Amino acid sequence: MNKKLKSYYRQFHPIVWVLLSGTVLARGSAFATLPFLAIYLSRNLDLHPVLIGLTIGISPLAGVIGGFLGGHLSDRFGRKPVMIGSLFSMSLIYLGFMIAETPVWFIILNALNGLAGSFFEPSGQALIADLTEKSKRMRAFSLRYTAINIGASVGPLLGAYLAVVSAKSAFMVTGIMYFIYVLIFAGMIKKYNVGNPVSKGAAKVTIASSLRIVGKDKALLYLVLGSIIINFGYSQIESNVPQHLESSLANGVFVYSVMLSINAVMVVILQMPISHFAERFKTMQVMMAGAVFLSVGMLTFGFVSGWYTGILAILFVTIGEILIFPSSSYLVDQLATDELRGTYFGAAQFRKLGHFIGPIVGGFLLKEAGGTVLFSVIAVAVLGSILFFVQGNKVFVKTSPAIVKN
């Protein structure tokens, strides 16, 4: 048994394990705060749903702006300075949430949170790919997504408790966790001397030339466009689903907390078996199937009347995200060259436009038309992503048949 564990551990670089462990720590504490931000703003500041949507949506909008730049800088100057700087910034930002009192400050801080996160995410994914054999990268990305959801399985329950005891203490805990993460990560990356520029050639690639190279990649374009729609739908989970449940169910906040934890636990349990089964199919086809499951889950949210329908809705959503999100990271890695890997992962951050538009449009529909109409519209929109995945699959077949056979 010990030999099997050692063998499993050795298949990835120690820094990869640090990133996975840090993801559990940091995302767990973040999930104790951000999913409840909409409720906090509604209860404590009595904001209109559209303004709440703007406050939440400003983070992924900033991520769109910063993602490409952060990925490019990590290619040019190395993963190390970009990742350490962004982690330290996130620690300060969450401590800032703790003392914020006005809507303006929440908007500014959440924008900075999105910006710092967008620098870290593409650089972190690129570093995982840098340090992992090609044959094991899909497994690494699946483990990363599992790590996110291990944190997410504990975070919402902690957040629900802290929301009752002291809502602001959740922000403090998250800030401290990110600070611990950056200290450990900085020490380990110094020990193994990794995270430096990929090559001298990478440093010569300007941001303008990177934009031209990435802009010509039609497969990436279709992937990003389809992912924008997927994120448009998925963003409702953190913005309008909690508001809808709070207004339609007597114990809506508790139901929402349990649903988030069920979602995360299910991802941890089902991620590897579903991913193993999905390997039999083309990657874009897997994402199409995921869009169908996500659409059905969104539609079900519009008719939630209690525990059973709520769990059914989150079941469909969970299977959808398991099929979509790790596959998306895997495709970006396959499209990218070694010198522009961070840039490609940064360009993929444009999918966060969906996370910006979703809460605002959803907030308007929730206020003006109600939850059933909102989630019916979202379900139809998510199905529309399949059109882009179909076109993306055609490009893959024409340009690189080996990719789609994986």
What does this molecule look like?
With 406 residues, the protein is mainly alpha-helical. The protein has one domain: MFS general substrate transporter like domains (Growth Hormone, Chain: A). The protein is 83% helix and 0% strand. It contains 19 helices and no strands. Helix 11 packs parallel to helix 17 and helix 12 packs across helix 13. The C terminus is likely disordered.
Concise structural overview:
This protein has 19 helices and no strands. The protein is mostly helical. The protein has one domain (2-404): Growth Hormone, Chain: A (Up-down Bundle), CATH 1.20.1250.20.
Key features of this structure:
406 residues; Growth Hormone, Chain: A; 19 helices
Could you tell me the strand content as a percent range? under 5%
What is the element string, with H for helices and E for strands?
A: HHHHHHHHHHHHHHHHHHH
Rg (CA only): 20 Å
Shape: globular
- What is the CATH homology-level superfamily? MFS general substrate transporter like domains
Break the fold down into its secondary structure elements and pairings.
Layout (H helix, E strand, L loop, with lengths): L1 H9 L3 H17 L6 H8 L4 H29 L1 H21 L3 H28 L6 H29 L1 H26 L7 H5 L2 H9 L2 H17 L5 H9 L3 H27 L4 H19 L5 H29 L5 H7 L5 H16 L2 H29 L1 H4 L2
Helix pairs in contact: 2-7, 2-8, 3-4, 4-5, 4-6, 4-16, 4-17, 5-6, 5-8, 6-16, 7-8, 7-13, 7-15, 11-15, 11-17, 11-18, 12-13, 13-15, 14-15, 14-18, 17-18
